[in-house]
Write a structure and sequence with these properties.
Length: 156
């Protein structure tokens, strides 16, 4: 029997369909996420590196980066660098927390370091606790009840 991996992804409800379509409807978007994994899940990626390593035109790469950034899968920042004696501004991209979850759907467990796995676990747990807290407030379940359940489950 094949081993199963548990995956949890929290999506903004109003953007769910657009995010899923943008990522899984485009091979270029999937390849950008895979490239991010290879660089290190928390490391920056650059458009010029994507164009060199992936078999897509600059235009396709730019379009996919824009869509992924607009949907919050990637974050974008400007960096100042020196190139041939001149100062140049370049865009750097990083996976957002949601973007990391999507990238992880594509990852093999051995592709990640233990430190990256620990960081992912902590982020997922924090997001899940926030979700449970908000839902419990709507359902009027007291925090003490949740704390008691957590304490019971964390005991040896």
């Amino acid at each position: 029997m094949n081993s199963l991996h548990s995956y949890v992804i929290f999506l903004p409800a109003e953007e769910k369909d657009r995010i899923l379509s943008a990522i899984f409807g485009s091979k270029a978007s999937l390849d950008i996420l895979r490239f991010s994994l290879k660089q290190g899940i928390s490391n920056k990626i650059y458009q010029k590196d994507l164009v060199k390593k992936l078999q897509y035109s600059n235009k396709t790469i730019i379009e996919n980066l824009k869509v992924l950034t607009k949907l919050g899968v990637l974050t974008e920042a400007m960096e100042k660098t020196e190139s041939e004696g001149r100062t140049v501004w370049v865009k750097a991209y990083k996976l957002s927390d949601v973007g990391k979850w999507f990238a992880l759907l594509l990852a093999e467990e051995e592709d990640l370091t233990d430190l990256e796995k620990a960081e992912i676990l902590q982020n997922i747990f924090r997001s899940y606790v926030r979700w449970v807290k908000n839902l419990s407030e709507k359902l009027r379940v007291g925090k003490d009840v949740l704390k008691q359940i957590f304490s019971e489950e964390m005991e040896d």
